Amino acid sequence: MPRLFGFAKKSAVAEKVAHFLVGLTLILKGIDKAEHYRQNPLTVLFLFAAGAFIILGAAFHQRIEKKVPNFTALFHVAEGIALILIGFVLLKKSSRMPYFLFFAGSVYLALGAFNLFTNEEQKKKFGPKLPLVLGTVFWIAALVAFVLNFLGSGNTWAYITAGVLAACGTFLLLFRKRLAAHSGMQFEEEKEGGHIAEG
Predict the structure, then answer these.
(1) Which residue, 107, 119, 124, 125, is most buried by CB atoms nearer than 10 A?
(2) What span, in angstroms and rounded, lies between the C-alpha atoms of 70 and 58?
(3) What mean pLDDT is predicted for residues 159-165?
(4) Average pLDDT in the 158-180 region?
(5) Under a CB-based contact definition with an 8 Å cutoff, are residues 187 and 128 in contact?
């Protein structure tokens, strides 16, 4: 149990870092757009607001979760919707960033919806496979972004995007079993139950 508890703390920190990376990326993009603030003030404000929302939500996650049931799922849904909306806002600006935002937003939206609209039996059945699927999807997206950018314009933002995607994918793949157990998927308990049955 201490081993799982210790991992729970590490996974919580890693999840915060992932949220911070997404939020920081939006804020940096807002700073970049701030040079032309008069041309698109709403876009700049929206980027800063969304980035701050994600970072603050991740920073105070545990405190809020004690008072708001299903806060994790609701936060993922809100984060996903915010990222997708920002993607639409930036799409007309001929930026590469929207495609990253559409992808990340869709993933967070799917995660939130999965946790909100599935029962315990469905979570136990499909939950352990979810980190593996998401990690693979993140890595494929990172490789595609890197290769297309390398063969194309070599844009710095595209490389940063690929790096964030690869980092998220690596975390999901390396710790997929522990993440499933930490998420209440009973992965470890089922494994131990199998050993007892065999004995």
Answers:
(1) 107
(2) 14
(3) 80
(4) 78
(5) yes
Segment 70-74 long-range contacts (CB within 8 Å, at least 24 positions apart): 70/115, 70/116, 72/115, 73/111, 73/112, 73/113, 73/115, 73/116, 74/112, 74/116
Identity of the residue numbered 44? V
| Location of structure tokens 């990172």 | 142
Q: Residues with Cβ < 8 Å from 163, sequence gap 6 or more?
A: 142
Chain-centroid distance of CA 29 in Å reads 18
Is pLDDT at 30 greater than 80 in this prediction?
yes
Q: Which of 122-131, 138-147, 175-184 has the highest mean pLDDT?
A: 138-147
Q: How far is CA 179 from the centre of its chain?
A: 13
Residue 50's identity, in one-letter code, is A
Query: How much is the pTM?
Result: 0.60
Please give the Cα distance from 117 to 163 (Å, whole number): 31
The closest alpha carbon to 79, from 20, 135, 159, 9, belongs to 20
Report, as an integer, the average pLDDT of 183-192.
43
- Comparing CA positions, the residue from 107, 79, 77, 105 lying closest to residue 91 is 105
